[in-house]
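User: Predict the structure for this protein chain, please.
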Amino acid sequence: KNTLQDPERAKRFIASISSAVAVNPQLQDCTASSILAGALLGESLNLSPSPQLGQYYLVPYKNQCKDKDGNKLWAVDDKGNKLKDANNRWIPITESVATFTIGYRGLIQLALRTGQYKKLNVIEIKEGELKHFDPLNEEIECLLIDDFEKREAAPTVGYYCMFEYLNGFRKAIYWSKEKMLSHADKYSPAFKA
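Assistant: Here is the predicted structure, written as structure tokens:
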């Protein structure tokens, strides 16, 4: 309440974070300070933690605990010997923390607020729609499925994103679903888990 100052904003903030934690049992195991820090970052950007909006997420991670000198802590028996798991590896002492992770809809929201965009689009490309994508000239040729329900039911084969600034600068990219999954597996600890 002291940080947000406005009582109505504080009520909305508390309600939205309480709701986000209530619907995710893994967040309930996270430290309160990590939830609050992530949520305040989202609030400072004026984004919503609602999973339905996809602007940002509080993603639970297990972090290995460390002592005051920065040394990793391990589970020990009553004699002080490190305990091992079934794979003969030492068992770390961990704590669950919530980490702020911005969603693509949050990135779009922040971009639109700059007032610098003439166009901004992100769309899934469904099976049979992509005719050609030229990465050198960033031009795409697609024939989108007209029927909304049929389009939603069709398998996704890739993702297209483009933007154009008011000054005419334009950028476009297409990634196949396989490339997107490979990227997520390489760079996203949550996805990899």
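Residues 163 and 171 are 6 Å apart (CA to CA).
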